[in-house]
Recover the amino acids of this structure.
């Protein structure tokens, strides 16, 4: 457990040294959400309908921005070899690294979501559901992205391959996340999609670190 | 300390075997110097010995546990944004070892003055010294070193030879690959020539 904590702390230290890496997704996210309304008519009531999708897709793309680099640096400088050779289970170390990335890149997106939701005209209840759905959904996005990054870390031009691999895997989170907000907006019960998001969260957080660890081991062979 | 026994080992790189039918043993107090031209499979063999790569055939008996061996690959495992001290302290925490020896180890390899400088600003040889400081920070009986002399100056090579000598006299064992000959005054060195 101490080893996982060490990996987690190192990610925070690296983020403090290179703030651009976690500020960039947040800026990208804000730009997407702010520019989208400028593309439609002023006071178009349809905006409110699209708002959940805009915020969810914006969060997804923002979360994907830095994912490709997640293991690249460690592969290039040889830290990955030391992670694989450490006594602690690799899956635990990978989970710590993904959790740190979630904290650094996704939590700011979750925190910014209510602001953007209000700006796009969502009702107070829908804003709450939106934030909750992002809180439940972003770990799934981050762990899926991390798994794909582990799969492609040894490949040339992973930047091309990664979105193709990862976007289909992320669709359930977007469907249920957007669905929950739409239901709340329409005054319908919204707990079922949130339960689905929570189920996806439980599955991805427990299973994907093992898959990612296997992929990383493979990348060195 | 049980000796490392390798029996008719084959190491594959892609779809061909770079090493085939290799047998040797390394016991405590020995230094095994693996030689061979580029592409002979020195790095792949070392990776198999410490468990980063699967052997294609053959058996390895007495392979040391994670907590008993050091691996210093041709990459230094130093993050360029962190200082040597931070990198080494992270390594100790990752392996759940006491980090108390880090400062003394960095001083011994001559990086005391540079220990707070980001590794990205250090020279190749200085980074190599920082990576080798791991060997001193946490004493472990087995050393697997891939091209440890690469990038080191004469003083650095002498330092590594002294460290290897002390390690072998203290009952440790080392397996290392290098193009350059090891310093002649180093005792207990056996050479293993790889022929592709």
């Amino acid at each position: 457990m101490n080893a996982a904590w060490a990996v987690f702390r190192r990610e925070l230290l690296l983020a403090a040294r290179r703030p651009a890496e976690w500020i960039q997704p947040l800026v990208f996210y804000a730009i997407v959400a702010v520019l989208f309304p400028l593309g439609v008519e002023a006071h178009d009531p349809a905006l409110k309908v699209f708002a959940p999708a805009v915020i969810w897709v914006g969060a997804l793309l923002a979360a994907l921005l830095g994912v490709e680099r997640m293991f690249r640096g460690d592969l290039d400088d040889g830290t990955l070899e030391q992670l694989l050779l450490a006594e602690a289970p690799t899956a635990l170390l990978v989970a710590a690294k993904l959790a740190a990335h979630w904290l650094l890149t996704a939590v700011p997106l979750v925190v910014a979501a209510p602001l953007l939701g209000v700006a796009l005209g969502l009702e107070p209840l829908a804003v709450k559901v939106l934030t909750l759905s992002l809180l439940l959904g972003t770990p799934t996005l981050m762990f899926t992205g991390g798994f794909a990054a582990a799969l492609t870390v040894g490949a040339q031009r992973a930047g091309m391959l990664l979105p193709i691999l990862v976007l289909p895997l992320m669709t359930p989170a977007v469907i249920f996340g957007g669905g929950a907000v739409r239901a709340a907006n329409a005054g319908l019960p919204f707990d079922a999609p949130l339960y689905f998001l929570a189920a996806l969260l439980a599955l991805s957080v427990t299973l994907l670190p093992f898959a990612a660890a296997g992929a990383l081991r493979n990348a060195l062979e | 300390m049980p000796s490392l026994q390798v029996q008719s080992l084959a190491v594959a790189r892609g779809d061909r075997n770079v090493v085939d039918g290799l047998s040797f043993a390394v016991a405590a107090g020995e230094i095994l110097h693996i030689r061979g031209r580029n592409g002979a499979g020195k790095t792949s063999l070392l990776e198999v010995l410490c468990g980063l790569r699967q052997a294609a055939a053959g058996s390895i008996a007495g392979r040391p546990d994670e907590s008993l061996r050091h691996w210093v690959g041709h990459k230094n495992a130093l993050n360029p944004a962190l200082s040597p001290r931070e990198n080494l302290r992270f390594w100790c925490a990752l392996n759940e070892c006491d980090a108390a020896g880090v400062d003394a180890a960095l001083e011994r390899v001559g990086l005391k003055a540079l220990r707070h400088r980001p590794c990205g600003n250090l020279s190749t040889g200085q980074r190599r010294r920082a990576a080798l400081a791991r060997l001193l920070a946490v004493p472990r009986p087995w050393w697997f070193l891939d091209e440890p002399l690469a990038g080191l100056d004469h003083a650095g090579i002498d330092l590594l030879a002294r460290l290897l000598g002390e390690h072998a006299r203290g009952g440790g064992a080392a397996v290392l690959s290098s193009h350059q000959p090891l310093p002649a005054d180093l005792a207990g060195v056996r050479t293993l020539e790889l022929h592709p």
